[in-house]
Specification:
- The protein has 458 residues and is an alpha/beta fold.
- Among the domains are: 61 residues, no CATH class; 92 residues, no CATH class; 83 residues, Helix Hairpins, CATH 1.10.287.
- The protein contains 4 helices and 35 strands.
- The strands form 7 sheets. Strands 14, 16, 18, 20, 22, 24, 26, 27, 29, 31, 34 and 35 form a 12-stranded mixed beta sheet that branches.
- It is elongated.
- The chain starts with a strand and ends with a strand.
Length: 458
């Protein structure tokens, strides 16, 4: 004979059901069955009243519900960077034209940028079954935010922050900022122009009309052709074919195999393992041209201290100009200051004339000037005083720089390890000499306030 009320509990013990075999049941009968079956939690009194009022036979009827456990959420890291190549978008110029050389193919972050944000794991919340027993929940799993070079973690451990400008990378789960940009081929329309806050390494060359700028060093395995390359550090490349266009500049040294129709400037030393042909060169300290050829021909070469080459000029008597004894930066500074001094002296003369007019007017009016003119008079005197101060500082700086030039001149020299050809012009500390005959291994220096050429003995 069937029991009047049957109790059923699902496998996870979160739900308790009754099955009625008789419509004539009461709340107390149902609760007796639940109590007798050990059901203590989540009993639905309202549901039981409804069952008594409208009994349904032979179907499981929910009368108690437990609370399922809620597992904690795992820690999560959201990276604020795009790995791989970004969408290439050429620059639209103000006139509506498109510069296909100016495309961006890599992401750059700045120092202080947030590269990743970690969301901490959450605690689990325990559940309870219909028998009143706790059901344990799992806490979320933690993960480490691992950083490498040029990246730090915030004090609360929730953020990865760039310490330097560069390219964000992830290697084996380690987040870092690389200050080396590697270009696997040429700099051309496939890469666009390069402007990078760090070092740049180019496995190919640089195509005409493109530019490469870096705050660090630039290393180019190919040739720079009629392009602009500028480094905050050193530049090293196979050679430069300038075609009279483009500019190569470095705050440090430059090392090349050859220069042809190039314009090159560096604050440090220029090393050429080949030749300099039809080029304009300026180096802060020295220029060395070595190798099997080691020739400077048809070029204008300027260095602060030393120019040394195997051969200077050519048998074809092509004009070649070599100058030492003046740091190019110092010469530029003197030129700029001299120009400013000239302008300020003119301004001073104009102000002095204006002040004299005011003073003449003041004398005619028994020492009185109208308010508007008195104000302009005071302004003119104040401006004149500022110009006097400015002129004094600039003149003193020019004097100091010229003394520096004298020191450079006394220490500077031009060396030809093999020969110097006629039609070569040499300048040392402002003294000038045109070579009218061929010299063998020679060294030119200042002696008794004039250029003297002597045999060079290594």
């Amino acid at each position: 004979m069937d029991t009047k009320i049957e109790l059923k509990v699902d496998s996870d013990k979160l739900n308790a059901f009754i099955v009625l075999n008789d419509k004539n049941v009461s709340e107390s009968e149902i609760k007796f069955v639940l109590d007798n079956g050990g059901i203590k939690f989540g009993i639905a009194d309202a549901k039981i009243k409804e069952i008594v009022k409208n009994p349904i036979l032979k179907e499981p009827l929910l009368v108690a519900q437990g609370v399922p456990p809620v597992n904690g959420k795992d820690a999560k890291i959201e990276y604020k960077l795009e790995e791989g190549t970004q969408e290439r978008r050429p620059l639209v110029l103000d006139d509506g034209t498109v510069d296909y050389k100016d495309v961006k193919v890599f992401k750059i972050v700045k120092a202080g940028d947030v590269l990743a944000v970690k969301t901490s794991p959450t605690k689990g919340r325990n559940g309870r079954d219909v028998f009143g027993n706790d059901i344990p929940a799992k806490d979320g799993k933690d993960i480490r935010l691992i950083v490498g070079r040029n990246v730090s973690i915030s004090e609360d451990g929730s953020k990865a922050i760039a310490e330097k400008d560069g390219i964000p990378l992830i290697h084996d789960g380690i987040l870092e900022v690389s200050q080396l940009l590697e270009i696997k081929g040429d700099v051309d329309y496939s890469t666009g122009n390069i402007d990078f806050p760090g070092d740049v390494e180019i496995r190919g060359g640089v195509s005409p009309a493109f530019y490469v700028k870096a705050t660090g060093n630039i290393r180019i395995k190919g040739v720079i052709e009629a392009a602009d390359v500028s480094a905050g550090g050193n530049i090293e490349c196979l050679g430069v074919k300038g075609r009279g266009k483009g500019l190569i500049t470095a705050k440090g040294d430059i090392k090349v195999k050859f220069l042809e129709n190039a314009i090159v400037e560096c604050d440090g030393d220029l090393y050429v393992d080949g030749s300099i042909v039809n080029s304009k060169v300026r180096a802060g300290r020295k220029v060395e041209v070595t190798g099997n050829v080691g020739q400077i021909v048809g070029s204008n070469v300027m260095a602060g201290l030393i120019v040394a080459a195997k051969e200077i000029g050519s048998e074809m008597a092509v004009t070649t100009r070599i100058e030492v004894g003046v740091n190019p930066k110092i010469r530029d500074r003197i030129k700029m200051l001299s120009s400013q001094i000239y302008v300020q002296k003119q301004n001073l003369e104009k102000l002095s004339n204006l002040i004299k007019l005011f003073e003449d007017t003041k004398k005619k009016n028994n020492g009185f000037l109208p308010a508007d003119k008195a104000e302009k008079y005071d302004q003119a005197k104040s401006s004149r005083l500022e110009i006097y101060k400015s002129l004094s500082q600039m003149i003193a700086e020019v004097k100091e720089l010229e003394e520096n030039i004298s020191t450079y001149a006394n220490d500077s020299m031009i060396i030809a390890l093999s020969k110097i050809h006629p039609s070569t012009e040499i300048i040392i500390g402002g003294r000038r000499m045109i070579i009218d005959k061929e010299f063998g291994p020679s060294i030119a220096k200042i002696s008794n306030d004039k250029i003297e050429i002597k045999p060079y003995i290594p």
